[in-house]
Amino acid sequence: MAHRGWLYLALALVATSIVIAWAITHRNARLDSVSVVGLGQRDFESNLIVWQGEFSRESKNLQEAYSLLQRDRQATEEFLRSKGVQPTELQFSAVSITRLYTTNYDEMGRIRDQHFAGFRLLQTVRIESADLDRIEGISRDIAELISRGVEFNSGTPQYFYTKLDSLKIALIAAATADARRRAETIAHHAGTSLGDVQSASLGVFQITERNSSEELDWGGTFNTTARQKTARVTVRLRYRL
Fold this sequence. Notes:
By secondary structure, the protein is of the alpha+beta class. The chain has five helices and eleven strands.
């Protein structure tokens, strides 16, 4: 029994020595480097607007519905051209055709029968322009078009930035410089000097409405509803000390 006690004591001492050695090794490893996150951020204004609307006609006669839709298309194009929209900025979609039915139900809510009610033809017009003010004004004032008998549904404009690649490069540079400043501050106050970069990783780009509480997403955010936006990206750097 005495020999067994000494054996347990020896094993305990060995285990303790291993734990202490591991702690010292990892403590020193942590002191050999510093990890920082830098932020690159810039406000910018969109330089491209995309706006679309749709108009439709219904009739039991397909040819009649198509003829009415063509008349609406002509009225829509004339209206937009009168507002200064250029032909190169306009794009009409193909006509979509939907068969309409009226459905009758029994007292249990089950379908009893269906009857053909006609055709619904729909066409979409899309405008892509660098003249944001003009297209914004048109999207808010389609009363004149409706007064011509066109059943026009206006969508919400979307805003884009065509120089996004250049902006991303500038943000990465700013985030990297910010990360280095943070690392230099830590090294200075720790009484040591900053060494080489050991690793670097790039976060996702976040583009949100300016001065908004819009939530960020781990997969990245790309706001298209706001004209004024803010772009952000983070860079994580690990430096040797």
